[in-house]
């Protein structure tokens, strides 16, 4: 009876692995033996969980799990109905594996990706197989720049929600987002560090500058922090020190809690 009960599809619509104890699944840098055991444990865990699940439409990986190509393919093959995917911080995918996985997820609508996934792998694969992408969140690390906008135009022309929260972003890229993605309804730039070379020489721009320099179509679509009112500030993550510390803080806060939260509620887990 328990076996039958735990296979009920209603239990598995959302598979949230973010509560896994990452200590057992993360790869210690200097312990090759532990790394192998950790990988084997994760593979076994994914196979077991996905053998029970049926009809999963939302899959959230633990932010700190190191996902291998084998685990990625196993997951993709067993979740053909996936609509939302939240990938972890570090992955180890080949170009071929990314294509195989994305081919299994033709109904995907929403994805969180980090800078550890090579953009020249993931974006062409999304563009080729996942024609229904309407939401995307970029993780921390690399700069959000024009090449990302060009990729979005090709692979997700119907994008409605974009989160580049707490991310270093080029002003030109932000302009491109509003100029070329005409279906956008919300762009989360909360605590992002916007860089524009023409703004007082160098530095992150303020919201008045943004409003004056972005295309008129951006009005009402930008989500930003107003006077410490956002989730991050409320949770005690307010940054009140100088800009150098702000940059350092953005990099240092590449953490699971920032990845989890989002003011675009459908992009929050
Ligand atoms: Zn804030």
Give an overview in words.
This protein has helices spanning 2-5, 22-25, 32-52, 69-78, 95-104, 119-129, 146-155, 171-180, 207-213, 231-237, 243-252, 256-260, and strands at residues 14-16, 58-60, 66-68, 84-86, 90-92, 110-113, 135-138, 161-163, 168-170, 186-188, 193-195, 222-223. It is an alpha/beta fold and 269 residues long. It has one domain: Ribonuclease Inhibitor (Leucine-rich repeat, LRR (right-handed beta-alpha superhelix)), CATH 3.80.10. The chain has an 8-stranded parallel beta sheet, with no helix packed on it. A two-stranded parallel sheet has the order 3-5. α4 runs parallel beside α5 and α6 packs parallel to α7. It is globular and about 65 Å long. The two termini are 31 Å apart. The protein binds zinc ion. Zinc ion binds next to α10.
